[in-house]
Write a structure and sequence with these properties.
The protein is built from 3 helices and 8 strands; from the N terminus they run αβββββββαβα. It is an alpha+beta fold. The strands form 2 sheets. The chain has a 5-stranded antiparallel sheet with strand order 1-2-3-6-7. Strands 4-5-8 form a 3-stranded antiparallel sheet. The longest helix is centred in the N-terminal third of the chain and has 17 residues. It starts with about 25 loop residues before the first helix and ends with a helix. Bound molecules: zinc ion. The site of zinc ion has 5 residues, from helix 2. Zinc ion (ZN) binds next to helix 2.
Length: about 160
Amino acid sequence: MAIRTIITEEDAVLKKTSHPVTKFDHKLHVLLDDMAETLRDANGLGLAAVQVGILRRAVLVINEADEIIELVNPVIVEAYGQQDGLEGCLSVPGIYGDVKRPMHVKVRAQDRDGNFFEVEDEGITARCFCHEIEHLDGHLFKERATALYTVEELEKAEEEDGEEG
Ligand code: ZN
């Protein structure tokens, strides 16, 4: 396993559409293992292959039980409800935004060996599914955000909230 470099929004590759995975071979397994190590190292909740410069439809999401879910060729098949919340991205360091997402999301995907499965979750994990799958079509959360903040702005707002409370 190896930690790969996470590319940032200045890199035009992030705007490209990723291609379906067709070979469930050793190369894919190495990519997924490297992505897991990279994601843990970066303390993130999700990572798409394109974020390490590989234009393949593969993403990882860490659920609330701290398990890594590998999603190959993922498609959202059901989404309902709504949540408002703060979202960030390892490819957009230091910036967070208010993004509306569905509260519940069901995803159909393949595992690393090509077997189809479905996974359903809510809250932050549902948010993560949406965020990561959008990366595969070249989209960043910033495009959907109704407001963007820097870390400094968020810290300042938190301090002010604290004083009031
Ligand atoms: Zn992201």
